[in-house]
Amino acid sequence: MAKLVSKTYGDALFKLSVEENIMDQTAKEAQAVLDAFAESEELSKLLNHPKVAREEKIKVIEDIFKGKFSDTIVGFLVIIVQKGRYNEIPEIFRYFLDQVMEYKNIGTAKVTSATALTDEQKAAVEKRLLEVTKYVEFNMDYKVDPSLIGGMVIRIGDRVVDSSIRTQIENMAKELMKIQLHK
Predict the structure, then answer these.
(1) Stretch (H or E) spanning 71
(2) Interior/surface letters 140-167, b for 16+ CB within 10 angstroms, e for the rest
(3) Cα(148)–Cα(162) distance, rounded to whole angstroms?
(4) pTM for the complete prediction?
(5) What residues does 111 pair with on adjacent strands?
(6) Low-confidence residues of the chain, pLDDT below 50?
(7) In this predicted model, what pLDDT tens digit does every residue of 46-78 receive, in sequence order?
(8) In the chain, helix, strand, coil percent, each to 5?
(9) Which of 76, 89, 97, 163, CA to CA, is 20 to 30 A from 54?
(10) What CATH number belongs to 2-102?
(11) For the chain, what are the domain ranges?
């Protein structure tokens, strides 16, 4: 259900930003809203508190965001609160930002390797990803996981390329388990 809500609202904001030609500004403000919610646990608690009236929640949203953000974002937040979907705000804005990235053909790649990659290796990975995908640019996120032993795991959306030694060993072990020994 949460996915459906974030998709419905996120798509609405995305379509509006395309129609009004305000995508870049809206994306920038959407990220700022996400940051505000991440930094202020009290804001989330207040909006999700059952004893705080909806009108009070709307007033809080307007007090915090009006004048600092566009009427589009403030109005959108007010609608979300009016509909009682305040606990979905971060997910809605994340979905919207994902849509913007997809629209601009900017991918996000999460690369996990056994050891830290050099700048040259990082450049080679990004260059190869640009060659084999539709994306024109990537936001790269690098992590180190020594348990991979060697190789790397690359995630782009729901696609995974796993060339780690750990996975290769696990796959060999599964194949060996299938072999029945004959006397």
Answers:
(1) helix 71-82
(2) beeeeeeebeebbbbebeeeeebebebe
(3) 10
(4) 0.80
(5) 142, 154
(6) none
(7) 998 899 999 999 999 999 999 999 999 999 999
(8) 65, 15, 20
(9) 97
(10) 1.10.520.20
(11) 2-102, 105-178
